[in-house]
Predict the 3D structure of the following.
Amino acid sequence: MNRIIVCVKPVPDPRHWDKVTMDPATMTLKREGIPSILNPLDKHALEAALTIRESRGGEVVSLTMAPPFVDSILREGLAMGADRAVLLSDPAFAGSDTLATALILAAGCKWIGEFDLVLCGNLSIDGSTAQICSQLGELLDLPSVMHVIGLEWLDNDRAIITQRIEHGRVRMEAASPIVVSVLKELNKPRYIPFTGILEAESKELKVISNQDLKIDPGLIGLNGSPTKMAGLEVRRFERKRERVEGSIDEIVQALADKIHQYGII
Amino acid sequence: MDFKFSEKEEMLRKAVREFAENELPPKMEAMEETGEFPMALLKPMAEVGITGIITPTEYGGVGMGYLARTIVLEELGRVCGAMPMAMQVHHMGCAAISDFGTDEQKEKYLTRLAQGETMGTVAVTDPAGGSDVIGMKATAELKGDKYILNGRKCFMTNSHTSDFWVVIAKTGEGAKGMSAFIVDKDAPGAKLGRKENKFGLRGANTGELAFDNCEVPKENLLGQEGGGLGVAIKTISETGRTGMAATALGILTATWEEAGKFASERVLYGKPISALQAIQFYMAEIYSQLEICRLLCYRASWMKDQGMRCDTETALAKYYTCESAVNAAKKAIEIHGSYGIMKEYAVQRLFRDAMVTVPAGGTAEIAKVVLARAALTPFKK
């Protein structure tokens, strides 16, 4: 094992979701001012990488596409045990849909260099599209496996993978390099050890822009994203209220009509 | 002055909060019912670094210091007050050996504490002592290559969960007639006494020890013979008081959260009771006490990290935070009305837990003696 790349994504902390708003112009989430956490499933991906490194050696690199203010979240991945972090950040990336994001992450993987395994969480809790793993596989021209609940790295650089399917599980063997996305059943992520917090300060966190990746600007960002939001509707959960006026007989009749109209009886 | 936590300290808080919120609640019901400390959590806490937070790295700790420890204890206490109580006394055991132990003692005992193989404690109080430390009756007499200990120790946190204890006993008379020892629980003549049945901080074990011609090897003398009072005072005033203050701070934080949540959810007169000025004033008082205590606790532990003399500040933090935790919990119960005295609601536990922090680790009156000295010294003629 030479290198594992783990894609990690900062997402708005669910405890503050009531404060998250949408930008009506771009129809994207407005994340500024909302505390972020590491996407929970990405922690399982990171745990898988750290476990493999403990038995097979190699380097664990975390890879993120995000605005530059997520430094402290990436340090958490370093504190958990990643060797270094690469942050892909450029105003040109803003508004990227999953395909454009996968294109940027794939370019990031190639920029990092050779690798044996790319790991990610099956989905993020903000977008929940669960598309990055397959798209990364296609763009890197590598096999990809989703819904992984078992991952054993053999010493001949092959992996035994257990995938959860609708009514059972599939066990398969794959040759590296591969792209894998994981479910929470795979493992229990370690808590951040305090020694990791101390070590994280001195670990490398490199910020890379599109000047380094040189992706065609027409393929990334809001304009390069084929997904177009058709509309934005704010759902309101309110009780419907109606005031019925008149004499008692009129009110009772109106009430009886409503009961009939709504099919309550 | 810089009142901002570093990124490292913020991450530490987040890491402990995640650990505490996931690992402690499943144990709390049993802790409340049985009064037993959940020993199964000791190893996971060691892996994270909680048990060895102030212990130097060469003895298996993480050596992050006292401000970091305050953050850790506060976050544990926010979820379960008994946990920081047990941990802070564990840290007292670590500090006593770290500050006064020989290299051999540190290698043999401190490493085991830092790595969570057992729990630490310091036994000062005996039935005749307590606040009157010098009045203790427990004795130690050198006979050949052994000290022979006789007497009892009471109200000891972690008494039954430790494999060895730091014990203070009289080797002579007066302030210089006391010595500290590391006593193995398997030492001939060492006996575990009763387990106490406290009304708060129930998951932290408190009990009694008895020494009946207990044989302690001479090399287990901690520090110099006659230096026991120094061991007791330094450990209690610096590690113990900052620890009790941080425990109470965690309880106070939980109190504010429970009161705020209830006040925003409970509807009376057609709106949440948080819209009532009477409730708002209660919340303002709880919040003020929390913010004041945060500053007191962080400053005292920061001063300890800087190597500054901090006995006044630790006494102030301990006294004020423990009192505030009780006052705030009482107000939180009043905000809850009758719900507040029901076992289903956390505030009743917070009140019981807060009350136990008051006499523990030095009573409010002893803290006031220290504070009165600071308050009056400038005017002494």
User: Anything to note?
Assistant: Residues 228-265 of chain B form the longest helix (38 residues). The interface with chain A takes residues 7-8, 10-12, 14-15, 18-19, 44, 47-50, 53, 62, 64, 68 of chain B (CB under 8 Å).
